[in-house]
């Protein structure tokens, strides 16, 4: 009776509402009141890892809690029949429950909901350590020192007790703590507590936490496991969108073995130019295959054509690209624009990504393709040596192909990216492959081109031989600008400075290059001027003395000599008027074979320069187009290889 009276007095001092609710069967002496015993650890870390075993009269199971800051925690629960990982995120108010098969169930936490329990009966370890159900320090949690006690046959412990009440659940808890007694020389006021055991009584339910390991302030990251996608999860960080408009990246893809094939590593070089709407992919599987397969692909998004080139045989196949209005680097790189079936990514946190010193942001997303699901898990650099990076760079992607039907296991491929270059040189990267493709396809397929030559006046005797590369670049840009065409139409520049060995006074610079015509497609969307019109225009400009190529630093400043433009080779569409238009300074032939032989003789005779003859080697295969069984190469070229899923 006296005790109850005392309790009442205590209650008046504390919050009255609590007292009426306390279960006096659990805490006959009432709540433990402020302050906590001085021997109780003063600063309780809000970041810890606790690994324990819960034992009751009837069962035993394992519980591990990772507690990170005030807003998140993870519970790992394991008993003889199930194995669960439960992620609580009070920032987004979500719980993710992940089972043995790594299936994830997401549920919402009401904003006023307090999550105290692991299962219906057992409260989370963090609650017993003085946190509330939303992982904040709990207001009404205090402890009393009881005395020393030896438990488990010999562990000397300090025993504490706490009776506290959890408002939201109308739950009274009486917990007894056993902290191991630190040897005197290790006594620090702020040293981490070392829990051995916690006995819990609530609503006449008794259980014991046997603490196997307690670590305070560990380095923990809150990430759901790799490869786990939680439908409807709130995305906490946008998937990187701000890719540069030009990009060169190298990737190696590990392809696991299947019943029919061995495992292999394929490597890709991808170059993307968003403004040019152009992509080049070089592909290699690290071994020689016969017959040779295409190993370079050019995709011209402005004409919807893809050129597949086999460098060994100099063969080119052109196809309609099966791509739907993809425009930005982002869409090209990830193909998310396709079929309006863009992937919703969810951010899963910062993790290791198998690169030294690098930590990565991770996103996961899925695309549903009727019979299968394609899952992408992207890793982008986040930190280098723990320093935050301002710009994200793709590091790797895991691509899982998950079959909806049948028992086939998911196929997982890993692509690692290297040599990310956000400022590649577009001209160098496209180089002359498109020109080579045109030559291989040839006028018989209406892939027409011209080879032109002009003379630059170098009476000022600039040391051109020291600046050949720069001159080539400047010429390329100047011609593309003046003619208002994409620079991919110009290639194979040959600069000849020692053209006429019989005349030592001749300092002129001879420039030979290839000009490609528009590809023969019906669409006019990005059609530029035809070669015929361009040659006409260039001839006019040169003859008017208006074609210059200048280096900004003054290394050269050259003017094209009027009337110097020569058309060495020119193929036209049959419909085009091929009257000799160029005042006898150029040759326009439509009758291909005959012309080339004539021209070659003339050239070789006039200019013995080896560079110019080299230009002609491409013509050995003129008109030779071999229909290739390209198979699915066009499909597997992307990060997302597609499998023959009919077979399963
Ligand atoms: C809270 O629990 C106590 C003891 O279990 C009970 O007597 C009381 O009625 C409960 N109060 C509410 C509001 O549920
Ligand atoms: C907690 O329970 C123990 C018995 O398990 C009891 O001795 C103790 O008095 C209780 N604490 C309070 C504050 O009532
Ligand atoms: C997911 O969790 C919710 C709430 O916890 C539950 O109602 C639902 O049945 C669960 N779904 C699956 C597939 O486990
Ligand atoms: C948790 O604590 C933080 C600061 O300590 C506070 O801003 C927040 O409102 C608290 N959350 C709840 C649910 O009490
Ligand atoms: C691969 O072989 C195993 C065993 O022979 C078979 O069960 C499985 O269906 C095969 N998978 C495929 C994709 O053919
Ligand atoms: C490319 O193909 C897509 C879809 O087939 C079409 O919408 C687009 O207009 C085409 N672009 C060109 C330049 O033909
Ligand atoms: C590309 O598609 C167009 C019409 O859509 C068709 O006329 C043309 O033959 C196709 N070209 C190739 C190389 O398949
Ligand atoms: C793509 O999807 C969005 C939203 O689902 C829709 O608003 C849009 O009209 C779709 N676009 C096309 C081309 O189907
Ligand atoms: C070709 O051009 C010439 C000169 O411009 C003109 O006389 C002739 O009629 C044209 N031929 C055709 C088929 O357009
Ligand atoms: C044709 O070229 C010659 C020199 O090669 C030049 O004198 C003449 O003016 C040119 N005619 C036209 C119409 O451009
Ligand atoms: C091309 O030239 C050859 C040889 O002079 C001739 O037999 C053939 O008819 C010409 N073809 C065309 C399309 O003019």
UniProtKB/TrEMBL annotation:
Keyword tags: Membrane, Signal, Transmembrane, Transmembrane helix
The keyword Signal belongs to this UniProt entry's keyword annotation: yes
Pfam families assigned: LolA_2nd_metazoa (PF25898)
Superkingdom field: Eukaryota
Signal peptide range: 1-19
Domain called LolA-like: residue spans: 225-431
Residue intervals passing through the bilayer: 614-636
InterPro entries given in the database record: LolA-like_dom_2nd
PANTHER family (UniProt xref): ENRICHED IN SURFACE-LABELED PROTEOME PROTEIN 9 (PTHR36902)
Name of the protein described by the UniProt record: LolA-like domain-containing protein
Upper lineage: Eukaryota, Metazoa, Spiralia, Gnathifera, Rotifera
